Amino acid sequence: MPTMTLSSDQQFSLDSTLGCGQVFRWDRTDDGWWYGVVGRRVIRIRQEGMQIIFHGAPGSFIKNYFSLDLDIIPILTSIDHDPFIHTAITQCAGLRLIRQPKWECLISYICSTNSNIPTIRRRIASIAERFGKTIDFEGKTYFTFPEPSSISCRGFEDLTECRLGYRQPYVFDTSCSVTDEKCWEETIDRLPFEDARKELMKMKGVGPKAADCILLFAFQKYESFPVDVWIRRIMREHYLPDLPGNAPLTTREYDTIRSFARNHFGNYCGFAQEYLYAAREG
Fold first, then answer.
1. Which residues have a catalytic role annotated?
2. I need a surface site. Which of 45, 55, 129, 259 has the fewest CB within 10 A?
3. pLDDT (tens digit per residue) in 31-62
């Protein structure tokens, strides 16, 4: 089975990276193996110290997917501006931001609104099983994430069994509107951050938080700072004490938080967001 040996300065924790909630189609077995579907591949992977053992994809794919080509130490140094984020960076050492498939990430975060991670995982798995293509791997059947046309051509009602709730029309309308997946990806990719964010938010079901997650995890726009209930609480308790208490999060407050984060943490504030989020229960 192929292996990859990390260099001494190449910080990476597979468990932290796959277990922090940024992706939804990976499962860990009791003996430490992770299984996930990425594009048309099923990947089996585990970490033993500085060695990554994997099957189902070439080393170049693994390196790109897990952002192992990024020199993460200068990035973390650039956001390490206060004791609280310093503790989060130390606690979550080796956490990387995954380069997610863009279309799948878009639908995943439309499905994520007002939901917990187990529910999001069930919805995405259901969409893949109903509309995706099968892959046989080590005696089990897995499913690719469907292309937009696979959903739009089957019709709105076919999504009902996926139990998406009010998100069902959002997923269907988005699948109908993205008629050329590659063209859509290239359009978002080449836009400046704020323009890309506005373009994403034109899609039904994509609010500020979903747009920021998509830009961060799929398009590597690291100046993105998604704000959910956990990040809002962290920012209020440690950075912005004048924020409202338990009132609903307004657009104005959201923009206040992300503007502060950009100024405080810099152009890689998206890394700060993920480290703060991952360390929240530590």
1. 209
2. 259
3. 999 999 999 999 999 999 999 999 999 999 99
Burial of 13 (0-12, 13-18, 19+ CB in 10 A): middle
Give the SS3 label for residue 200: helix
Examine the fold and report which residue of 161, 196, 216 is the final residue of a domain before the chain moves on. Answer: 216
Region 80-86: what's the mean pLDDT? 96
CB-hemisphere CA count at 13 Å for 226? Answer: 24
Domains in the chain, number: 3
Q: What are phi and psi of 240, to 5 degrees?
A: -130, 75
> Among all chains, which residue has been given the structure tokens 């939901």?
115
Range of the domain at 56: 3-69
CATH label of the domain that carries residue 231: 1.10.1670
Nearest-angstrom CA–CA distance, 151 and 167:
14
Question: For the whole model, what pTM was predicted?
Answer: 0.94
Residues pairing with 142 in the sheet: 135
**Residues 183-192: pLDDT tens digits?**
999 999 999 9
CA nearest to 178, candidates 207, 146, 210, 209? 146
* Same domain membership, residue 147 and residue 78: no
